Amino acid sequence: MDTPPAAETLPPELPPDDERIEQTEEFRGLRRAFRGFAFPVTAGFVLWYLLYALLSVYAPSFMATKLFGHINLALVLGLLQFASTFAIAAWYARYADRRLDPAAAAIRAQYGSTNLVAPREAGE
Amino acid sequence: MTNTLQLASSAADHRSLTLALFGVFVVATLGITLWAGRQTKDAADFYAGGRGFSGFQNGLALSGDYMSAASFLGIAGVIALAGYDGFLYSIGFLVAWLVALLLVAEPLRNSGRYTMADVLAFRMRQRPVRTAAGISTIVVSIFYLLAQMVGAGSLVALLLGVSGDSAKRWTVVAVGALMVVYVVVGGMKGTTWVQIIKAGLLIIGAGVMTVLVLAKYHFNLSSLLGAAAEASGKGSHFLEPGLKYGLTGTTKLDFISLALALLLGTAGLPHILVRFYTVPTAKAARKSVFWAIGIIGVFYLMTLALGFGAAALVGPKTIKASNVAGNTAAPLLAEHLGGGAGTSGGAALLAIISAVAFATILAVVAGLTLASSSSFAHDLYANVIRRGRATEREEVGAAKLAAVAIGAVAIVLSIFADKLNTAALVALAFAVAASANLPTILYSLFWKRFNTTGAVSSVYAGLITSVTLVFFSPVGSGAKDSLFPHSDFHWFPLSNPGLISIPVGFLAGVIGTLLSREQADPQKYAELEVRSLTGLGAH
Predict the structure, then answer these.
(1) Fewest beta carbons less than 10 Å away: which of B40, B172, B186, B447?
(2) Over the stretch B274-324, which tens digit does the pLDDT of each residue have?
(3) CA-only gyration radius of chain B, Å
(4) Could B88 and A116 be called an inter-chain contact, meaning their C-beta atoms sit closer than 8 Å?
């Protein structure tokens, strides 16, 4: 199973398809575009959530600051967690539509017809 | 005298109405299951619903899988009794979906086939990694399943007003039998439609109640909060963090531990992960998480209104008298909104919300049974025991047998463990998912050097640490609602192990990788990266 029959039809001096694609500028650009968004944004919302959780348990009197009526800072920050979650989801959907999907589609169109290794499933 | 008679007759009214409504739900979903069963021909149909669902449909189904009775009744109840701290709890459940959206859903959809282990084992030695991933999938799912079924037993007793152990037992048996039928007959296609219907019912039910609550306060959030604070007897403290988690240094740490487990556990829950295979492309997987975030977010915002509404309108005394943990706050609120106890409107709304709660439990347990039996058949049976030589038909047959076996085990365990604290079980499932599954998923996808030893160490270290710590925590012994309430051998102070076990899971992956002489295969990693980012060669 590890040596797929399809790959054997390639000229031997060429590396297998996946490795060849991995070395193209198009693929590296796609990976940069994905990681450049996903990693920093993840770090951002994790820190923002932890800040909120830590403030809630260790600074309750600060969180109890009244803003107007019965609305206090804790409630506003909690609702902002909802707002930021919705906003990040929408932001990523837009970014992926514009930057990731076209790049992935271009790579699929260019290399999709060549032989691809079947996913390894069975025993070793 | 007339008053008591009236009460008794209205209780009977709502009971028969609840049972009738629930009967309609069961008949309708069984019909769909039979229809789905006839369409289920091969393994891709059974495990992944033929990969034919749209992003929106799967978004609803993901929400259905996630919004358990624990979150509907539990969070509304905690808000009604502990105010702001209940809200704090629901936020972690929501933010966690961003981890799934940004890092996990699309790569998993592109590079896997039926189970979480497909991705973990992609570039590793198959048998050890699939064994580890299969065990952790089944452990997480069984803890979650137990929580739901034990909860179902007590819920029925509460909502139908029947007392005694035999009613509880029959409920657990009936729920268990139904979930096995959904899974064995309908596979993923049937289970997904059950989730979609249930999610729709839950959103509509919660939505109607939210509008009714807000209407009583002229849609002014501040006056709802003011009324809740006043009725709670705790004044403005009710609207501030601290009533539940801020008591001592230990409860504070316990909350941070829980927050971490919630944040990192969601994207490691097997019954959520297998849902990403039910859509045709990575883009559809992304859309389904996008919809799930919207639906779940709106739902948790509604539980905020319901919880504070229950505190203001029903009052903590009545809620506590019905159930100490507050689990009946939402049904009691429904009765109040319909016109109060003893009115037909009150009985009707109470019956509707109770039936929705049953539907919720049934759908979630079906999802859990499917995920664990899929992993047993596809990972342990087909790839470990039969070493990849099982036919598709044998594999699906094994999955159906496993569903029956897991259903039986869950029924027996739930009957014997009916005093267990369900919230602690759910938190434990999230902690195991965050400590054993998520580190391995992230390293597999994004760390080139990661190897088989690293994957296996990470899964087992996370799994063993979290389960051991819980066993030696107040959840295990030394408290009234412990597993062993009459002895005390606890030495770990926190009831959630995440604060320790999540770092252990992440560290074990690094240490295992670096200590092993095994070299990661750069070609396999290139293959995984290309597949996961472009969708080339995806199933």
Answers:
(1) B447
(2) 999 999 999 999 999 999 999 999 999 999 999 999 999 999 999 998 888
(3) 23
(4) no
* B286 interface with A at CB cutoff 8 Å: yes
Residue A106: how many other CB atoms lie within 10 Å = 14
Q: Interior CA angle at B397 toward B115 and B193, to 5°?
A: 60
Interface membership of A112 toward B (CB under 8 Å): yes
Mean pLDDT of A33-59: 96
What pTM, to 2 d.p., does this model score? 0.91
pLDDT at B54 over 50: yes
Total residue count of chain A as it appears in this document: 124
A42–B113 CB contact, under 8 Å: no
Taking alpha carbons only, the member of B433, B431, B436, B434 closest to residue B508 is B436
Return d(Cα B505, Cα B442) in angstroms, integer.
Answer: 12
Contact status of A70 with chain B (Cβ, < 8 Å): yes
With 90 as the cut, is the pLDDT of residue B134 above it? Answer: yes
Q: Residue B390 — φ and ψ, nearest 5°?
A: -80, 145
Take residue B288 and report the two structure tokens written for it: 């389904």
Residue B450 contacts residue B520 (beta carbons within 8 Å): yes
Separation CA B88–CA B94 (nearest Å): 11
Q: Are A45 and B98 in contact (CB under 8 A)?
A: yes
Give the helix, strand, coil percentages of chain B, each rounded to 5. 80, 0, 20
Among the ranges given (A100-109, B177-186, B342-351), the one the predictor scored with the smallest mean pLDDT:
B342-351
Q: How far apart are CA B396 and CA B62, in angstroms?
A: 23
CB contact at 8 A, B54 and B279 = yes
Cα–Cα distance measured from residue B82 to residue B80, given in angstroms and rounded to the nearest whole number? 6
In 3D space, the residue among A120, A83, A123, A87 whose CA is nearest the CA of residue B524 turns out to be A120
Residue, of B489 and A19, whose pLDDT is higher: B489
pLDDT the model gives residue B230: 94
Residue B216 CB neighbours (<10 A): 15
B297 part of contact set with chain A, CB < 8 Å: yes
- Residue numbers in A near B256 (CB within 8 A): 53-54, 57
For chain A, give percent helix, strand, coil, nearest 5. Answer: 70, 5, 25
Q: If you average pLDDT over each of A38-47, B244-253, B384-393, B478-487, which comes out highest?
A: A38-47
Contacts of B282 in chain A (CB under 8 A): 104
pLDDT of residue A113: 55
**The two three-digit tokens of residue B411, written as one number:** 């029924």
Are A58 and B252 within 8 A, CB to CB?
Answer: yes
Chain A neighbors of B240, CB-CB under 8 A: 60, 63-64, 72, 74
Q: Are strands A71-72 and A66-68 parallel, antiparallel or unpaired?
A: antiparallel
Residue B286: name the closest of B53, B73, B59, B127 by CA.
B59
Asked if B263 and B344 count as a contact pair (C-beta separation under 8 A), the reply is no
**Both tokens of residue B37?**
């069963």
Establish if A92 touches chain B: CB-CB under 8 angstroms.
Answer: yes
- Determine the distance in angstroms separating the CA of B217 from the nearest CA of chain A, rounded to an integer: 13
Q: How far, in Å, CA of B398 to CA of A11, rounded?
A: 42
